[in-house]
Task: inverse folding
């Protein structure tokens, strides 16, 4: 990560934290009143192939001590009413501003993977995680909807795991590596704006 990108992350994260503080308080109260504690969901993710960190989100599901892997159709029954509302607008990711301030992630980059997938594909993630993970990115914009469609049809945890590893991980990695070849502060801003308006930006790809 360049110094300019880090400064941009800190300034933007501080500004958004202040701006979104009333919304954070409202969402926290809704979760507490409707669904109880905990308000936040903390998940171990990987900053690079060997360094884990705790990613923070608003809790959108009922808790399950046996939970593992990514979310698919097998977990759909656990999504709360408040959680569904937050997921539709990606409001559950607002607490990740704290992760940005800590330097765990950036605004833009590959989504931070679970350790299990890094262990399964160390060769792939050794390249992908040369870029600091992010809240959004090219893979998020271009493939997130398709990923949700693929995983929504999965009825068991094993099926979700197989579909994610075989069909989602390689596609997202290709997009993450395209981002890595084209990354710049201007491109990051373009991707952030595109995330707000949910449109994939067009950009000439370098070989």
Result:
């Amino acid at each position: 990560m360049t110094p300019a990108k880090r400064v941009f992350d800190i300034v933007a994260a501080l500004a958004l934290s202040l701006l979104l503080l009333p919304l954070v308080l409202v969402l926290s109260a809704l979760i507490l009143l409707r669904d109880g504690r905990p308000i936040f969901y903390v998940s171990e993710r990987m900053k690079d192939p060997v360094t884990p960190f705790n990613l923070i989100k608003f809790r959108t599901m009922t808790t399950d001590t046996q939970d593992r892997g990514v979310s698919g159709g097998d977990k759909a029954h656990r999504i709360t009413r408040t959680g569904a509302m937050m997921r539709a607008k990606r409001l559950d990711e607002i607490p990740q501003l704290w992760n940005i301030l800590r330097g765990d992630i950036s605004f833009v980059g590959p989504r931070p993977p679970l350790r299990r997938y890094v262990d399964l594909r160390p060769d792939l993630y050794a390249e992908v995680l040369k870029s600091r993970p992010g809240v959004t990115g090219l893979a998020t914009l271009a493939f997130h909807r398709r990923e949700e469609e693929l995983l929504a049809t999965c009825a068991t945890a094993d099926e979700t795991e197989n579909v994610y590893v075989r069909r989602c991980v390689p596609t997202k990695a290709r997009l993450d590596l395209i981002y890595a070849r084209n990354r710049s502060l201007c491109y990051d801003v373009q991707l952030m704006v595109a995330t707000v308006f949910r449109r994939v930006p067009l950009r000439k790809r370098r070989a």
About this structure: Residues 14 and 163 are 37 Å apart (CA to CA). The chain has a mean pLDDT of 93. The radius of gyration is 17 Å.
